[in-house]
Amino acid sequence: MEELVKKWDEILVSLQNEYEIANISFESWIKPLEVFQIEDNSLYLVYQSESSDKFALNYISKKFKTPLRTTIAEVTGAEYEIIIISPEKANEIKKEKNVSINVQEISKPTEIRRAMGNSTINPRYTFDNFVVGRNNRFAQTAALAVAESPGEFYNPLYLYGGPGLGKTHLMQAIGNYIEDQNPNTHILYVTSEEFTNEVIENMRTSNNATAMQRFRDKYRTVDVLMVDDIQFIIGKEATQEEFFHTFNALHAMGKQIVISSDKPPKDMETLDDRFKSRFDMGLMADIGYPDYETRMAILNKKIEEKNFNLDESIRKYIAENIQSNIREIEGALNKLIAFSRLEKIDITMDIAERELQNFISPNISREVTPQLIIEVVAEHFNITVDQMASKNRASSVVRPRQIAMYLCNTMTDSSLKAIGLLLGGRDHTTIIHGANKISDEINEDENTRNLVETIKKKINPN
Ligand code: ADP
Ligand code: MG
Question: Of 182, 192, 219, 294, whose Cβ has the fewest other Cβ atoms within 10 Å?
Answer without folding.
Answer: 182
